[in-house]
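Attaching the record inline, Q. Sequence:
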Amino acid sequence: MPRSLPADDGDLTLATTVHRRLRDDILSGRLPPGLKLKLRSLAVQYGAGASPMREALSKLAAEGLAERLEHRGFRVAAAQPDQLAGLIRSRVLAETAALREAIVRGNERWEEEVVLAEHRLNRLARSLDAERFLANPEWEICHQQFHQALLAACEAPPLLAFCERLREEAGRYRALANTMAYPDRDVALEHAEIARAALDRDADRACRLLAEHYERTARFVGADMTRHREAMTCP
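Structure, as predicted:
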């Protein structure tokens, strides 16, 4: 007979599942910044008991996605426009370091993966309906895969894991800003130029283009978040 899991193992598994669902909901903006995370309500909503729910919330707090309130539980971490600058600066520093290593270490397989990822991405429209700000989920997936492909050959898993965490946090700001349009900007061309510089093994140019790519997005996202916040505070 198979060995049954102890209760604690079951709680750990459930806590992991709940953590992932909560994390996805925070990163997507479905749980907005500052929202009080009430244990009883969450337990009903996510189908988990108090113990795995506390474990999940504690892990989110350790990751910086939730804030622990003294004797008052948890709330979703803040996401202010002025915090975005530090996040993007961290992302640029981490990803340009990884990109330099990938350019040095990348082989023909890496080159093929970059070319394929860029081709798949640029076949797609970023928005399904720009007028209604309807995001294209397939574009988002391919966008993620393109940036992952650029760094994949750096052979430093902890650095790649850190880059992925920063990417997810930056994605949260984009989701909160609901930025679907970038006036006077050719995002597809930016991706193509980054890929070409990387494949040409021009590390300085590739890193500069990648940094500019993220910094441009941050300016649009930060401006949109500021406008939304001002609109909410207007009488």
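The first helix runs from residue 7 to 27. The radius of gyration is 20 Å.

More tomorrow.
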